[in-house]
Design a protein that fits this description.
The complex is a heterodimer of chains A (190) and B (210). Chain A has 190 residues and is an all-alpha fold. Chain A contains nine helices and no strands. The longest helix of chain B is centred in the last third of the chain and has 36 residues. Classes of the chains: A mainly alpha (190), B mainly alpha (210).
Amino acid sequence: MFLITDLIALLAANLILTQALGTSTLFIAAGSRKHLLGTALVITIFTTVGSGLAYIVHHLLPEQYADFTLLCYTLIIGVIYVLLLAACYYIGGERFEKYRRYIHISAYNCAVMGTLFTITEKSHMYINYGTLISWVEFGLRAGAGFVIAAFILTAAYRKLNSAKVPSSFRGFPAMLVYLGIISMAIYALK
Amino acid sequence: MNNRRSTVFDGLLGDNTVLSALMVISPVIMCGDTLRNAEALILAFSAITFASVVICSLVPKKLPYAVKIILYAIISSLVYVPVKFLAQEFYPGIITRIGIYFPLLAVNSLIVVQTETKFFRMKKMRMIPSLIFYILGFDIVMLLTAVIRELLAYGTINSRVADLDTLISGLGMPFGGFIFLGLMCGAYRRLRAVFMRRSEERRGSNVSDN
């Protein structure tokens, strides 16, 4: 029962299905299980670590410099981007070439940046987003939300790309309509 | 196989920024439900993207890919600051309503992805008109989406009441945005296929005449 409640909560707070953040990256990831796993893992690292660092920036940056939040978040993502590439280079060895594309795809996309701005916005509205743990947890949940949305899309990916769908609507248009229907169902859950 | 020759107009027609390449779709889905939102987003997107890509073209090409992408994102984040200041002067309430989608315009795919894969492979004289048409591609889709969604969802055009009997309020919601954009993508593809077939037929008949 708790699992179902958690799943519903994850779906209801899903950044892709409720805020359309990272939709095009999702379409790339849903193409194959391998891509899905790689992209989802890297995006989760970006959102989780990024949210933790964003918390620090958010509390150190004076109110009058709020317009520079984007610049600070860009720098945070840049640092994680370089560190991940370096880690992948030293740990991945020969597989570096294969894996680095997931890092390139994930670095500056709406799913990651959107997570940082969403948590910042929520911290202004809700008191329970006042701790580092709550920010990191939100980042982790955003990554998990990406995985769930990608699985939902993967389930129908082949059918939406099959010859049975009219050629004009095959692929992206059908996937957008499909996501819209899922999003409508989630809207009803909220 | 798509053996269509690329032209500077691609971003607008043949390879539309939103409808074909699916770039910058989240503001269209989430905020493209009123004309006022669309105006603010179009002006901000056009200014940020144009200025950023032109400035980014000065970054040395020999730098590693990741370093260049980070520099492009930093440049666009800096360009965002004066644009936001101006937007707050002209559209004070709208910027608050757009919320997180406003800063997200500064890290859009045209700046952080297409610069390396498309624009910076062109000569400057071709890059600038091509960039303008990619920006126009977004602007037109945003405008069209906003007008139709505002009319059908709220029964207004630019906040003025239009005489409409039936409203589809769901079109103003995010799920309505997803579905509407999907339908627009399909219609765009259909039209593109018809135009391409016709132009090929015309080309074929010209060759046979000669």
